[in-house]
Inverse folding.
């Protein structure tokens, strides 16, 4: 007889056989899911085999961690030593290959907790994944956190998916910059679990979240459309006049706790941002919802900037930063460029900015700010945001993309058979090695004097020679970039120097010359002499290279200009208004080496290349050269004297012709613009359509070597209107025709 279990109708031997068969048939992956594999040894903090009074396998936390015993039970305690500090337990846990999800369980007890300055400054467990190469892998699990005390010990568990490439989990319980508190941790267990349920839960949660976000977005878009229809703007209270709460701050604008104020002048309110200390960031923050179908926006406002001193980096200025958020509240990768100002305005000025809206954008985030400036005040008023026609912006973006693609110029190997002949000064003319006169004519390819990473000048040099028929291109540059001293550079200037090398090779292979222009102002320094030793050695006796020693000397005597001496504070008219206050300050209170010092630095390397020396008054006055201040060059190929003139300069003959009778002249910068300079009296700036033909006639009559300023659409005077190199009608067209051989009549000099 079979013995039976009282609760089962089957005999026990038969039941055992069935169970054995079932175990054989259960898939291995299901068994693995039920098997408990603990991945954290000594997660109970009980073992201390080495008797060092710290649990085995755990990194000691000193001095803010302790190994505590209560009722014969050990655990770890983290305690904040002082407000705002981080106290963290750290452990890296290897993960078996193929783990798709993990369960993390633990016990915690939190006492005396006071969160820090931000809501997330609390008690939490940070979790991060690393791959085999110890690179972070995402997504990281959400950090389990607690913002208040627990009632004694509590059990916690989280489950999360593991990225396929993850090989390590970083486990980091911490008191994250809290004001006060204590966190006890015990019985930490990490084990693999079946990822399928977690994925299903995540998928369902995502669908629910997306449906909710869609409905919320629809309501917000409808409200935005209603606001636009009612007020003509998507920004409520953009004039900063309404304060219905009577709390001393404009409605709908988040209060700027430090550096923000709401002043009134002549019955009008506005927002003011004031830097309280150097390097502080002061920012207003506003989220503006967009109606459905918004493809482009126009932002207009008034601003007034006073006492602005830029910060340590070039972008530390007054700016309005902009970014878009999607329906999930996360920032989109596509965002408009910031609108920035780096100098004071002349009172209130009107500004505007148009930009495209990426697909999926629900809102625009506006962040007017004084971005880590040294000092300054930024006033804002009458902010209006409304939809704009996207077609012109799309066309402009496509054009710019084409220009960027066209900017690339392949490297070329030096082809010395095509290089031009070395030049030498003979009387007041330049001659090649065969004694033939060479008349240099061309343009300035600007950009590398302001941005070390700019590669457009490479293309500009090729266009200037191939299309504009220049036989000489002046390339303004910056000695600080040469040595990699810009915040944008991390390579010691190697890439910048390589760019100059490429420009010179491209020009030389086309039989043209390059003028390397040290684009500095006021008076030369010891640092400039050191640069010229380095640069001259690099391009020593290169037949295509000429050295323009110093862009525009000014506000020094002819004695200091030639031989050096002390350079004090400048006086009188200022044609360097485009320089920052820091740059102006740097240009005074030092001992200059003089232009002779720069020339001697070049010649000390053995370089015989033609050197170019600019005169006084921002290179507009060469009258001292024939009055005893000519430079001495006994070992080189000679000197050209540089003259810069624009459509507000007069006395052409008096400034240059006496020197032109004896020495070769290089008109390194010349031009006129319909946009008048704000630092020159308006009435002094002649119409380009009358000035340019006469100046070109003057240049041609006296066969002055010349390079027009400037082949850059953001320069002034400007020769091109875009990076398709379309010549401007008032200057570029005339210059291009002159380079192509058109003769201009000189009707009168100035």
């Amino acid at each position: 007889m079979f013995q039976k279990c009282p609760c089962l109708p089957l005999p026990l031997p038969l039941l055992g056989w069935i169970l054995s068969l079932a175990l054989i048939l259960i898939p291995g992956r299901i068994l693995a899911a039920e098997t408990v594999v603990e991945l954290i040894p000594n997660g109970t903090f009980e073992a201390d085999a080495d008797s060092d009074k710290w649990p085995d396998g755990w990194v000691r936390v000193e001095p803010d961690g302790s190994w505590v015993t209560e009722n014969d039970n050990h655990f770890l305690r983290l305690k904040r030593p002082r407000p705002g500090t981080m106290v963290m337990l750290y452990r890296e846990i290897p993960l078996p290959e193929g783990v798709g999800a993990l369960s993390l369980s633990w016990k915690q007890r939190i006492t005396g907790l006071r969160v820090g300055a931000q809501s997330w400054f609390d008690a939490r467990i940070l979790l991060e994944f690393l791959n085999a190469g110890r690179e972070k892998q995402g997504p990281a699990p959400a950090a389990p956190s607690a913002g208040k005390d627990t009632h004694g010990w509590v059990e916690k568990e989280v489950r999360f998916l593991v990225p396929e490439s993850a090989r390590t989990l970083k486990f980091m319980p911490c008191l994250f910059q809290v004001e006060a508190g204590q966190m006890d941790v015990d019985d930490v267990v990490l084990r693999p679990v079946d990822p399928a349920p977690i994925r299903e839960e995540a998928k369902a949660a995502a669908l629910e979240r997306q449906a909710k976000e869609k409905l919320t977005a629809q309501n917000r878009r409808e409200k935005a459309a209603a606001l636009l229809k009612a007020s003509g703007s998507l920004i409520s209270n953009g004039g900063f006049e309404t304060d219905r709460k009577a709390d001393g701050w404009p409605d709908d604008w988040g209060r700027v706790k430090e550096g923000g104020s709401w002043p009134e002048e002549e019955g009008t309110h506005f927002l003011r941002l004031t830097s309280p200390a150097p390097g502080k960031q002061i920012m207003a923050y506003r989220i503006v919802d967009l109606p459905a179908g918004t493809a482009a926006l126009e932002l207009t406002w008034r601003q007034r900037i006073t006492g602005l001193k830029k910060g340590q980096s070039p972008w530390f200025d007054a700016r309005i930063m902009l970014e878009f958020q999607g329906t999930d509240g996360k920032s989109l990768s596509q965002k408009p460029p910031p609108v920035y100002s780096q100098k004071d305005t002349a009172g209130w000025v009107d500004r505007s900015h148009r930009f495209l809206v990426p697909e999926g954008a629900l809102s625009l985030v506006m962040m007017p700010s004084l971005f880590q400036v040294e000092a300054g005040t930024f006033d804002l008023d009458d902010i209006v945001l409304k939809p704009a026609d996207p077609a012109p912006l799309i066309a402009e973006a496509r054009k710019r993309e084409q220009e960027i693609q066209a900017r690339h110029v392949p490297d070329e190997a030096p082809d010395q058979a095509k290089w031009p002949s070395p030049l030498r000064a003979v009387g007041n003319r330049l001659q090649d090695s065969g004694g033939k006169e060479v008349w240099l004519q061309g343009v300035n390819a600007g950009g590398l004097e302001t941005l070390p990473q700019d590669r457009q000048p490479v293309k500009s040099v090729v266009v200037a020679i191939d299309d504009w028929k220049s036989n000489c291109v002046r390339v303004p540059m910056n000695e600080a970039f040469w040595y990699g001293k810009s915040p944008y550079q991390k390579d010691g200037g190697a890439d910048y120097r390589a760019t100059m090398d490429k420009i010179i090779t491209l020009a030389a292979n086309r039989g043209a010359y390059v003028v390397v222009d040290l684009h500095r102002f006021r008076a030369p320094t010891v640092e400039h002499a050191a640069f010229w030793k380095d640069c001259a050695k690099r391009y020593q006796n290169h037949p295509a290279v000429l050295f323009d020693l110093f862009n525009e000397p000014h506000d020094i005597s002819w004695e200091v200009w030639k031989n050096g001496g002390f350079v004090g504070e400048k006086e009188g008219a200022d044609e360097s208004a485009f320089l920052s206050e820091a740059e102006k300050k740097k240009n005074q209170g030092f001992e200059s080496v003089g232009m002779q010092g720069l020339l001697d630095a070049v010649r000390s390397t053995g370089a015989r290349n033609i050197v170019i020396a600019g005169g006084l008054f921002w290179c507009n006055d060469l009258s001292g050269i024939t009055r005893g201040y000519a430079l001495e060059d006994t070992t080189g190929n000679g000197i050209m004297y540089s003259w810069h003139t624009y459509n507000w300069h007069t006395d052409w003959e008096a400034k240059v012709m006496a020197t032109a009778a004896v020495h070769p002249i290089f008109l390194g910068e010349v031009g006129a613009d319909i946009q008048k300079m704000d630092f020159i009296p308006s009435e002094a700036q002649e119409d380009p359509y009358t000035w340019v033909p006469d100046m070109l006639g003057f240049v041609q009559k006296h066969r002055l070597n010349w390079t027009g300023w400037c082949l850059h659409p953001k320069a002034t005077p400007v020769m091109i209107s875009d990076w398709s190199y379309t010549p401007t009608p008032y200057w570029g067209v005339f210059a291009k025709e002159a380079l192509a051989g058109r003769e201009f009549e000189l009707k009168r000099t100035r």
